[in-house]
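Supplementary Methods. Inverse-folding protocol.

Structures were first reduced to a discrete structure-token string of length 588. This string, shown here, constituted the complete conditioning input.
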């Protein structure tokens, strides 16, 4: 196959309009990849696009994972089998409403780290990552007989920086391994296009937007004219929906309005739908938006009001856009999509429960330090950190406060709940009555997701946990044990449910379910407080009573025939007696 970028895209010397959809393999169960890609092709698309999240593939420095949800080559094989072209975006930073924009949290353990820059430790980490990742893409290139058309250099860099030396470093690294066209994607206006592109390197520039194709492509044309470039117009991210945050209502976009904006894009150029199917932010990988003084972590569902639902069902918007594609690109092949089967399994009792404080020492070996450290400094990336120190004598403490912490703190004295602080409350003084000669102060801090976009995307603002310290009156408290609660499968396996239960404190609840076949279902979390759910040791993501989605989608991929174990970590002192597995999601 021959692919060229001239005044149009050419494949085997035939002009082609690229009609693509974003599908993140890491947000969709592998058992459903083929169905999603089939529905993409059925809508009239000829291409699939995906980001590559660095933090998923290198969870610890030098430790790589390309299995399960991270099996990118299996995903690319599925696309190739269906005859779809592929665009891959393996830039170190992806945004994507993904934790830290895809950058690995272990970068934050380095003092003075400056991401997306010429910082030598950062560049060295990128180079080491690419040495493992990029060879996996080589056989999929169209120059090698595959279907991979082009790859991205950096993502919306013009909305962050203008360091051309850094961009050229990435180009050099990519070209060590790949010999297909490279591209950048930025917003569709002059300043970001000037800052984030590399015309002198021959890098194809694209624009991201969700409406007003005429205005955005006008700026792309001006950029091309300025640099004497002949190239097609492409919207690399057409935002057909939007992501959602806790404590806010679901965001929706009207189907016919969206479809007509798609028509405007197709009349002028090529398109990549962001998202075609959003999927799910499994584990602790949800990102966080910068809302000024307050951050807004994204929810577990990444439904995005996309063309397929979180669980893969075609929407009204899907059919409205399919109709427009057929009208504007008559050569596009459309067909009837398929639907996933959803199952209501019913109600199951909680068989066992145990308090976090009862099993803390067994599941987490404490890291000792004279002052509190952020989680990244104790070799932890995600989840919760419990900080513990001792307070002496029976007495009343009128002023106790935490200095500089992210994101949410629960205070316990002698394992009794005292207070919760979140964002605007962190740093406020609380009073504490000590009733023993030796008193145990425990602070459970939840990392609710790192920023994925904006000016806070620098190392000093993204470290999680207690970053300053804990003060009584006007002095800092000393001698802290740090318990790391990332809840990886090996840690969950150490939970001893025979130990004492105290449901007024953070607790684990276990349910065993026998299945004759694997199924797709939703866990009803509407009666829970706040926490995380694990199925057979795998993290399904967070829930919170403050919504806006009151369920967790649990796909067939995570179940197995026979005995299944579901564990809930509930932090709000709610005694969970039973669970309900239902057929449809609950949304506000």
């Amino acid at each position: 196959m021959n692919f060229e970028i001239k005044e149009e895209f050419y494949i085997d010397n035939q002009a082609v309009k690229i009609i693509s959809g974003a599908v993140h393999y890491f947000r969709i169960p592998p058992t459903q990849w083929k169905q999603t890609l089939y529905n993409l092709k059925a809508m009239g698309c000829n291409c699939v696009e995906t980001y590559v999240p660095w933090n998923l593939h290198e969870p610890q420095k030098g430790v790589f994972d390309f299995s399960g949800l991270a099996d990118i080559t299996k995903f690319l094989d599925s696309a190739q089998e269906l005859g779809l072209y592929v665009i891959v975006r393996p830039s170190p930073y992806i945004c994507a409403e993904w934790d830290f924009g895809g950058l690995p949290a272990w970068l934050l353990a380095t003092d003075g780290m400056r991401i997306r820059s010429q910082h030598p430790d950062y560049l060295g980490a990128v180079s080491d990552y690419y040495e493992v990742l990029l060879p996996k893409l080589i056989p999929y290139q169209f120059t090698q007989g595959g279907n991979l058309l082009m790859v991205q250099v950096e993502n919306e860099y013009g909305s962050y920086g203008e360091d051309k030396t850094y961009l050229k470093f990435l180009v050099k690294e990519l070209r060590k391994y790949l010999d297909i066209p490279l591209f950048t994607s930025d917003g569709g206006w002059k300043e970001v296009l000037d800052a984030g592109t590399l015309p002198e390197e021959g890098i194809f520039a694209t624009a991201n937007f969700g409406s007003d194709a005429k205005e955005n492509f006008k700026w792309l044309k001006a950029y091309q004219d300025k640099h004497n470039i002949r190239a097609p117009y492409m919207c690399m991210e057409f935002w057909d929906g939007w992501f959602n945050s806790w404590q806010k209502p679901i965001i929706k976009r009207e189907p016919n309005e969206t479809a007509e904006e798609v028509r405007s894009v197709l009349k002028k150029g090529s398109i990549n739908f962001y998202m075609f199917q959003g999927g799910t932010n499994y584990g602790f990988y949800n990102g966080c938006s910068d809302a000024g003084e307050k951050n807004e972590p994204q929810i577990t569902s990444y439904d995005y009001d996309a063309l397929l639902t979180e669980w893969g069902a075609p929407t009204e918007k899907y059919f409205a856009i399919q109709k427009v594609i057929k009208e504007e690109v008559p050569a596009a092949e459309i067909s009837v999509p398929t639907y996933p089967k959803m199952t209501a399994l019913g109600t199951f009792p909680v068989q066992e429960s145990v308090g976090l404080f009862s099993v803390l020492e067994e599941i987490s070996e404490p890291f000792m330090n004279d002052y509190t450290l952020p989680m990244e400094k104790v070799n932890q990336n995600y989840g919760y950190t419990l900080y513990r120190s001792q307070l002496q004598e029976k007495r009343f403490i009128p002023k106790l406060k935490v200095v500089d912490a992210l994101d949410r703190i629960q205070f316990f004295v002698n394992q009794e709940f005292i207070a919760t602080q979140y964002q605007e409350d962190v740093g406020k003084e609380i009073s504490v009555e000590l009733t023993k000669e030796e008193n145990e102060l425990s602070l459970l801090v939840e990392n609710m997701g790192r920023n994925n976009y904006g000016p806070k995307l620098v190392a000093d603002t993204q470290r999680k946990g207690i970053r300053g310290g804990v003060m009584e009156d006007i002095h800092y408290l000393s001698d802290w044990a740090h318990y790391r609660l990332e809840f990886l499968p090996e840690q969950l396996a150490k939970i001893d449910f025979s130990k004492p239960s105290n449901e007024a404190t953070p607790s684990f609840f276990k349910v065993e379910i026998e299945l004759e076949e694997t199924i797709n279902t939703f866990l009803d979390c509407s009666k829970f407080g706040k926490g995380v759910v694990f199925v057979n040791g795998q993290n399904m993501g967070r829930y919170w009573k403050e919504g806006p989605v009151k369920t967790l989608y649990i796909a067939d991929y995570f179940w197995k025939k026979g005995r299944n174990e579901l564990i809930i970590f509930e932090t709000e002192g709610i005694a969970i007696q039973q669970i309900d597995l239902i057929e449809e999601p609950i949304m506000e």
